[in-house]
Design goal:
The protein has 15 helices and 14 strands. It is α/β, with parallel strands linked by helices. The chain has a seven-stranded mixed sheet, with helices on both faces.
Length: about 450
């Protein structure tokens, strides 16, 4: 497809430094071959994450100036509550400082050590907080989600037959929650259908299990539903969102994605009357760990920009451009024979590093190896979404193999142009031509949880 033109114009620019190959090699060695350890001053195009890296709109910048910094009962909190009520229709919504804060509030309260928490696929922080709460994370993505070559519209779906079989075997009392990640980040930003959400909701109700949405990219998911699920072809993005969220009991959200803010998150319960103890427990955790309920660890200006960004992130013209950027880059890679998850997801392109670098076994982390090589080639920062991302099994301590070995090219919102995406495609083509020279990696130092953020690695030469 052609490039989808931006539905905005640029008012300010930020200069970025172009480094030499020698400078990049020195920088990655100093970072112990961990892209998270690089200084942003040494990065030309930063595709490490789309979380908190988007460009604020003029209305959001204006909102920063009118944010109410009252400790309690601020008007910016009231504005946010008005917006979230319009969009989600949940009885209780609580701001927190980011998505992992919402997970830190939720999972210790709902999880008894030894209980399972099931998901279509957990992302890193969610999996980490389930483990920290003593839970056992279980991924049950649909079969097509793990097959890069299969062209299916909703590869992020949960595998309902396996979900039913798991609950029949273990019983609902052994499961703390079912978490539906929309879109499904770890399998390539793939969407979840409303039909699949309905089935997951039915199964959860039948077994008395809490159904939670990980809502970081809910607007992108709704746009995929509009494009691919016939029932919702004529529905608005807001209508699809209300329909989806009505099927769950609660949600957590990193607002740094689809709400296009630098910092912020939400945790919410749909029916407060049905879950009074849940709300009371979560409120207590918020006050103890985040701050008073009407600011939840955020400045008033953050609450104001979050309220504005939630609405801007639902704009259909913006979403068409947003997904169009990923589709453009994916088409460039397809032309060059570079394998990637298809159809392309919402927030970026997931290159199949396992296929591009077949000489590197999964336990030498091809997804990470490609990410390092992409930085060395052109100063582009990205990250592994594969076996390197997975901590050792919490029960056995053994290494875990991911469903796929991806290198994620996460595209920040309203930041990069077509020319930047062309640089990325050209760099990957250059690496393709010398793929057999790319080394695998071994970990020489790692923390117990969420290792990929701070681990130290070395190439195996």
């Amino acid at each position: 497809m052609g490039y989808v033109a931006e539905p905005f114009k640029i008012k300010a620019v930020e200069p970025i430094r172009i480094t030499t190959p020698e400078e990049r090699r020195a920088a990655i060695i100093a970072a112990d071959y961990n892209n998270f350890g690089l200084s942003s001053d040494d990065v030309y195009i930063d595709l490490l994450t789309d979380s908190g890296t988007g460009a604020l709109s003029d209305r959001q910048w204006a909102g920063l100036m009118i944010g109410d910094e009252a400790y309690a009962g601020g008007r910016s909190h009231r504005h946010l509550m008005q917006v979230t009520d319009e969009i989600f229709g949940y009885d209780w919504v609580q701001p927190v400082h980011q998505g992992r804060a919402a997970e830190k509030v939720l999972f210790p309260f709902i999880t008894t050590p030894g209980q399972y928490v099931i998901s279509n696929t957990f992302f890193d922080t969610t999996r980490g907080h389930v483990g920290l709460a003593g839970g056992i994370p279980v991924d049950l993505v649909c079969p097509e989600g793990g097959d890069v070559e299969v062209d299916a519209p909703f590869k992020g779906n949960i595998d309902v037959p396996r979900l039913e079989a798991f609950l029949a075997e273990h019983g609902g009392e052994s499961v703390a929650a079912i978490v539906m990640t929309i879109t499904n980040n770890s399998v390539g930003g793939q969407p979840v259908s409303v039909a699949n959400m309905r089935e997951a909701s039915r199964v959860a109700r039948e077994h008395g299990v809490l159904l939670v949405i990980d809502a970081a990219r809910f607007a992108e998911n709704a746009y995929f539903v509009k494009r691919r699920e016939p029932e919702f072809r004529d529905a608005s993005i807001r209508e699809i969102t209300r329909t989806t969220f009505a099927l769950a009991d609660a949600f957590t959200m990193s607002a740094k994605k689809d709400a296009i803010v630098s910092m912020g998150g939400l945790i919410a319960v749909r029916d407060r009357a049905a879950h009074p103890d849940l709300v009371a427990g979560l409120q207590a955790n918020v006050v103890a760990g985040e701050g008073f309920l009407t600011y939840g660890g955020l400045a008033g200006r953050d609450l104001e920009t979050l309220a504005i960004g939630l609405k801007e992130g639902l704009d259909e013209n913006f979403l068409r451009y947003r997904l169009g950027q990923s589709e453009y880059l994916a088409d460039r890679l397809l032309e060059d024979g570079i394998p990637h998850q298809r159809p392309v997801g919402g927030h970026g392109v997931f290159v199949d590093a396992g296929a591009l670098l077949p000489h590197i076994p999964w336990y030498r982390f091809p997804g990470h190896a490609l990410a390092v090589e992409l930085y060395l080639e052109a100063g582009i920062r990205s990250c592994d979404i594969g076996s390197y991302l997975l901590d050792p099994d919490p029960v056995t301590g053994e290494p875990q193999q991911a469903v796929a070995e991806f290198t994620r090219l996460a595209i920040p919102r309203r930041v990069y142009t077509q020319s930047h995406l062309d640089v990325v495609a050209d760099a990957l083509r250059a690496i393709r031509d010398r793929a057999d020279t790319v080394p695998g990696y071994q970990i020489v130092e790692q923390p117990a949880v969420l290792r990929h953020f701070t681990a130290k690695l070395r190439p195996i030469v």
